[in-house]
Amino acid sequence: MENRCPWPKNDNLMIKYHDNEWGVPLHEDKKLFEFMVLDAFQAGLSWQIVIKKRENFRKAFANFNVKKIANFDNEKIEKLLYDDGIIRNRLKIESAVENAKAFIKVQKEFGSFDKYIWQFVKNKPKVNRWLKISDVPVSSIESDNMSKDLKKRGFKFVGSTICYSFMQAAGLVNDHIVTCPRYDELVDMCEED
Question: Buried b / exposed e across 38-60, counting CB within 10 Å, b at 16+?
């Protein structure tokens, strides 16, 4: 793909992720939870590390089944700490379990996590017009508000930067640079909805 956003570089997994997933508006709770977990594990690391371990995360975290993860006990957490296929960080693993519990509460309150999370962008993807990747911010007013509300609801590892990364991944914001072919494809996709 010519003029693609430069961040995937020549990494095939990153290119595949960029070309097929990043910025596509998501409305499926399971997938939203997956991105929430993965973005939390990315904190302080690169997305490339997370994407390379993604399949291992799926296995370790019950294919991101929120109900199963909410029931992970101390024994399961200890087992995950020895799983070298994932990022072995106790706080991040424990936060995935706590976030699963909070996620279920939000689903009960709003009918779905999708209904809850999309309210931060008024139920429509925010379309930016960045000319170069260095123009793309690491947070926004929307991610600030999302972070505050998620924290109030008991979520962990949901600072504004992590929330903004989640928004980019889940298509709440289109941060492809304008010369990237995916930019127009996603704008067109959103206009069809």
Answer: bbbbbbeeebbebbebeeebeeb
Expressed as residue numbers, the domain containing 95 is 12-192
Strand partners, 127: 174
Please list, residue by residue across 142-151, b when 16 or more beta carbons sit within 10 angstroms of its beta carbon and e when fewer do.
Answer: bbeebbebbe
Instruction: Provide the CATH number for the domain around residue 158.
Output: 1.10.340.30
**What residues does 126 pair with on adjacent strands?**
173
N residues, the chain: 193
pLDDT tens digits along 58-98? 999 999 999 999 999 999 999 999 999 999 999 999 999 99
Please, which residues have CB within 8 angstroms of residue 53's CB and are 6 or more apart in sequence? Answer: 85, 86, 87
Task: Give the CA distances from residue 146 to residues 54, 132, 162, in Å, rounded to whole numbers and listed in that order.
Answer: 25, 26, 10
